[in-house]
Amino acid sequence: MHLLVQSVMGSEGEFCAFRLFGEREGEESRRIRLGVSRVRRGRRVVVGASPPTEDAVVVTDPLTKEDLVGYLASGCKSKEKWRIGTEHEKFGFEFGTLRPMKYEQIRDLLNGLAERFDWDRIMEGDYVIGLKQGKQSISLEPGGQFELSGAPLETLHQTCAEVNSHLYQVKAVAEEMGIGFLGIGFQPKWGLKDIPIMPKGRYEIMRNYMPKVGTLGLDMMFRTCTVQVNLDFSSELDMIRKFRAGLALQPIATAIFANSPFTEGKPNGYLSMRSHIWTDTDNNRTGMLPFVFDDSFGFEQYVDYALDVPMYFVYRNKKYIDCTGLSFRDFMVGKLPPLPGELPTLNDWENHLTTIFPEVRLKRYLEMRGADGGPWRRLCALPAFWVGLLYDEISLQNVLDMTADWTKEEREMLRRKVPVTGLKTPFRDGLLRHVAEDVLNMSKDGLERRGYKETGFLKEVTEIVRTGVTPAEKLLELYHGKWGGSVDPVFEELLY
């Protein structure tokens, strides 16, 4: 994904910036304060990821904290420019053996997609590690999970069409190779030792670091799949409101889309094993971010948080340099031991932000990160759920009113218990299912008011919320019944 920062976008963006930096300054000094014009005249700042493109940046003076704040603030967009971005991962497997795809098979699949459907290859050294076409990209997660990062789109109809087009293309090439794709949140059959490792430098650094900071980090890297929705904000205040609503309701999304009850061929005691794994991956960079609910929260407070999240790497000369456990604050003053005297660029900041994994993540948009991977119909339902809640002012306010008196302890309790008990999690004087019913109605109402006839995309989850029976519980019922204690049929049940 290559993002271009040229100037603050629209009047809402300017409001965002002025709220941060006070009275109006001269145009050039204002743009410099926003970290948008810290380059020689005539050069644009290209901010890249997967792989980064740091060579395009020409920094003339050291980044300041205001620049880092301004980078986030530059995401502000007026409402008519709000878009929907969907990212979804899936497990590739061999039809005959059910074994995970090896890199060589993935390479052939990527090359096949590039040749047949006109994608551009993304290389790391001699390895093809992804594809790009317009604003869409295909990338590989550490264990070969296949991810589509969709383009920013205006309506859910476009989002669902993009998903369908992607799956059509992937199946057209993969089926000829004897490869299928599974929509589930956690690898149901194979152990860590069975998962192939992708040839990406950043993942090697993460793989070595993860066991030092949690017991489940390697499971997160190699055996999980998620669906994620990326949404815009108009101002710092709008970001704060959406961030709070998203965090408070993330456990409800986790429950509705819970779809990972198996580990190595047996029930694992969870409805969302994927969600549980994040509770012991690396607590410095995950979780429910209680400070988002503080009165003082804003872009600057998120920057302070991100500066204190230990680094993974810096990307220089097409190589990843191991900086695990080191501080971006030290990097800001040229005191990063692997790169003595070197100062960060905005690219380094953007790459660092991608190594933080809370339940809702802030970049120049907000990412809703709480849902398990699932079959294609639910890939359209998740963005519908969040768009109805966060892109409609009345629904957003209703969510904030409903969750205003939820305590930090209640939010943490839901985060901890929902992966086990789903919509049947006790909450106050009832079950989480009862809250989910209200929330789903708010989402439907919000979609109605948008006027794009998008409420049909919620049909896939309406029955889940009505009955309180999650997708994972249906899989467990099949496992104990019709499947006779075998997980192998799940590869057919949830085949794309």
Automatic annotation (TrEMBL):
Its main location: plastid. Pathway: Sulfur metabolism; glutathione biosynthesis; glutathione from L-cysteine and L-glutamate: step 1/2. It catalyses: L-cysteine + L-glutamate + ATP = gamma-L-glutamyl-L-cysteine + ADP + phosphate + H(+). Gene3D superfamilies: 3.30.590.20. It holds the Pfam family GCS2. Keywords: ATP-binding, Chloroplast, Disulfide bond, Glutathione biosynthesis, Ligase, Nucleotide-binding, Plastid, Transit peptide. This is Glutamate--cysteine ligase. It comes from Ananas comosus. The gene is LOC109708663.
